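Record format v2
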Amino acid sequence: MAEKPKILILATLSGGYAGANSVGQLRKDYPTNTYILPVLCPCLFPEDFYLRAFERGIDGILVMYSGTDSPYKGGPERAAEIINRVYPMMKERGIDTRRLRLVAICTVCTGPFLKEVNEMNDLLQELGPVRRERSSTATPQPQTVQSRE
Amino acid sequence: MPETSEIRRQKDSQSNPQGEEIRIGVYTCHCGGNISDVVRCEKVAKVLSEMPNVVVSRTHMAMCSDAGQAMVEEDIRERGVNRVVIGACAPSLHEQTFRRTVARAGLNPYLYYHVCLREQDSWVSGGDCEGATEKAIRLMAAGIAKARHLKALDPIRLDAKQRALVIGGGVAGLRSAWDIARRGIQVTLIEKSPFLGGRMAQLETTFPAGETARELLHDLIERVLAHPNVTVHTRAELVGVRGYVGDFHVQIRRQSRGVSDDFAQAQAEAAIAACPVEVPDEFNYGLTTRKAIYRAYPGCTPATPAIDWENCTLCGKCLQVNGQGIDLENKPETFEINVGAVVVATGFRPYEPRQGEYGYGEFPEVVTLPQLIRLLALAGESEGLEWNGHPVRNIAMIHCVGSRQIEGIHEPQPDGQVNDYCSRVCCTATLHLANELRGRFPNVNVFDVYQDIRTYGRGHEDYYTQASANMVRFLRFHAEEPPEVVPAPDGDSCPVLVKIKDYLTWGEEIEVPVDLVVLAVGIMPRPIDDLIKMLKISPGTDRFLLEVHPKLRPVETAVPGIVLAGTAQGPMNIQESCAAASAAAAKVAVLLGQGLVELEPFVARVDPERCRGSGQCVEVCCYEDAISLQTFSVNGREVQRAVVTPANCTGCGACVSACPNRAIDVQGWTLEQYEAMVDAIAADLPASEVGV
């Protein structure tokens, strides 16, 4: 059986995480290869957090933040800035930038939640494992990824 | 100037002793089959039992039960478990429960991590047992990975302001205010309209006891206004909020009333009579008109009339009667108060049928149930019932208008949704009115056109029995085949016909000629989007405000210190609204009564040994005085180091991503913990477990 792509969902407690719970209450199915981690605000994650996750074998990352509904002043804007800086770094490493998406999901945004998850899953089926992309690049730079450790 | 070593000592005193062996207890909940029908819990427990640091891995039918919690406590006491991971329902339901469980056994409550295996796994994985089980293993493994890095934390304790804000001056808001005030806590009640009482003031007799709504209401209003702990502001609304539980700073904007409180009754009547403006009277749902200087109804509170600033033409006719006490300039004022808790009692609005729905807006003979209540009140003691200048002899009352709607059959609301919920109160209200009609006007025939009769409360079924005995004729339709209201043919004695496929007569198609069609409209939440955003509270999929848990925390919102009262939360009758309001008041009293509130300790924390004083954390922080650079002495040398003021930090983590030295983290949500969780999710499962 081919290994399923692993989708990491970083979901804010005030947005995506509660939205995922709403999806659950409605018993709407979506792929099981989705791993939701609760976050207060994604502005906590620096650029290398995402690169490191891809490095470790996470195939796609959905950052489900609260957008303008965020209880954290300036947090959503900062998260967006960081993720915008991650894209060129992904390109440098040969990682398809579509593997990382920042989306606003509210507590009852069940439709958008399912759409994002299913679209990411479809995309990853098409792209294949992230390891293959990384291995196809000339010189992987894990030292950059791990520079904070 | 403190030494950094001193800061380090303070830090260590709150951390776990170095070198402590991590002993993790892992528990996978069946949730009575909710999880175990899809996830193979025993398999999950077995795989987890082989992971490093896991000393106990168990399953239980219901971890939240006394037995489930006792099992965890025993493992902590008897087996030296010092970290606990439980996979169960959503953390919003039982994270606090399990934190208390571990605390009872003597463990710091923050050495607990909750994994959601129900809403985010078993309930969304269809029949994919294999996939759901693998997902559960990875999610639990991530929880275990986080648990290895958990540190003991202490909640932040702050003084709680001994004042509550109640938003809404209807029966729920008034009842909450009264109950809170009696507990010795100050209350500020704000009401957007110029008068107190809300929707209840528009009712006449109430079910199930037949009492007069306004008498009950006026008694409550008098008690509230007389209580020394209560301050009431009408024409006031919330325009800003900052702070947190125990210490909210709320900005309130109050419009001028336009008429001073000492304005004499006789003068008021003359001023109202002098006003040339006529606008539809919202109190009577547009059946009558009122002036631009007005009272909601005779005997309303406050008794002083108010100027309707939207419709007043500033013509000055009212001033000519007696200028003293009237000021035709609206001078809104904004002021701030400091409160420890907020009760949201913003109430409901009746469903407004769309143009043409059962002939509404097309035929003057189609009215709503709230309009009929006002119509009967306006009819007074008259012997016959008239509508639109004609005697009414036949009335059809149609249930479920704007409730229990079905996608594809009913037209959606402007937001694209249908009201698929039952509004709960309309069945009894309709039968209550049907009985009143039959009692007051015995010559009027009443046809009750329904899907289902849901007279669910104590004594409510009596209204159905009584209606049957009162010769109210029942006709039953299916939701897929709703009745139609059409004009009657020329020469017919009644103006409209109700056409219905009646399932009480096995689908016979019946035409009922009537003089009046009454639509039993449902309950909808008031449009309070701005308030929802300000308070950061959430509506449910039905747009009513959402509680944390319908049974376990039925009046609390996910925002600590903000509670719900009455129909802002969902359709309720007066009795239920008052019960919810008292529950909300009790929550406020418990919260503020201790004088202290506890906040989650999830705030930024600096590692002074890693901090190099770059100041980037200070630059990105959006909160005043949450983080600053201070001067310390290290080996006799002055250095700058970041220092967090926990009370001002929200834990957003902007400083974490900004720090070039990884010297700052959010307690309880550290980058190290997230990286460990990601590694656990990405890790290959043992070959024997692939294809669980």
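Residues 21-150 of chain B form a domain with the Rossmann fold fold (CATH 3.40.50).
Chain B is about 30% helix and 25% strand.
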